Amino acid sequence: MNGGDAEQAVIRVVLADDQVLVRAGFRALLAAQPDIEVVGEAADGEQALGLVRERRPDVVLMDIRMPVLDGLAATRGITEDPALADVRVIMLTTFELDEYVFEAIRSGASGFLVKDTEPEELLRAVRAVVGGDALLSPGVTRRLIAEFAARSKAPAPASVLAELTEREREVMALVGMGLSNQEIARRLVVSPLTAKTHVSRTMVKLGARDRAQLVVLAYESGLVRPGWLG
């Protein structure tokens, strides 16, 4: 969707995985969709970073463990480059509770998928991150909470929240607890559009790249604390 062509709303995807068969499977699935185009493949993180800079895709499906440059370093290279601000990264993991989940979210990844995910879920994920949603399943959310609990002796100062209204703080807390816009709307008795607007404004005020970073900020600021999910 990068490029601003209103007549061609095609999601452009780069695949980054050192396993040829994995890339081939993803390519076959994605290329069969009328609204998705695979614009490049990379076998390591360095190739992936070069492809992203050259072709400016909307989404990168990025394996965490790759030779030359791993997926974490490649993701940081993407998310720290202002010219690539519109690129979203979905990390690919073999197991949902991957040891690098925490670091990848901190590096700017928009979410995670296990490699054996159902085809429909992969397609939904690609479309979701382009729409500004994050992919944090309950298992991944619990993993993040556990990591924050283990690594943080005390919450960071809440000054980061100073610009937020009371309602925006409430919405941010619900995002941090893993709720979707629909779930937030039901909890606050507002429309889904209103919930989405609150989330978007909160992201803009805090300079958050996407919902995944809102989750990180919610815990770092102490707005949400480990154990609140039950």
Secondary-structure map:
Layout: E1 11-16, H1 20-31, E2 36-42, H2 45-55, E3 59-63, H3 71-79, E4 88-93, H4 101-107, E5 111-114, H5 119-130, H6 138-151, H7 166-176, H8 181-188, H9 192-206, H10 211-220
Parallel strand pairs: 1-2, 1-3, 3-4, 4-5
Strand and helix order: EHEHEHEHEHHHHHH
Helical coverage, percent range: 40-55%
Largest sheet: 5 strands, parallel
Mean pLDDT: 82
Beta-strand content bin? 5-15%
Q: Using DSSP, what is the number of strands?
A: 5
The radius of gyration over CA amounts to 17 Å
Side-by-side strand order of the widest sheet: 2-1-3-4-5
InterPro entries: CheY-like_superfamily, NreC/VraR/RcsB-like_REC, Sig_transdc_resp-reg_C-effctor, Sig_transdc_resp-reg_receiver, Tscrpt_reg_LuxR_C, WalR-like
Pfam families: GerE, Response_reg
Keywords: DNA-binding, Phosphoprotein, Transcription, Transcription regulation
Modified residues (4-aspartylphosphate): 63
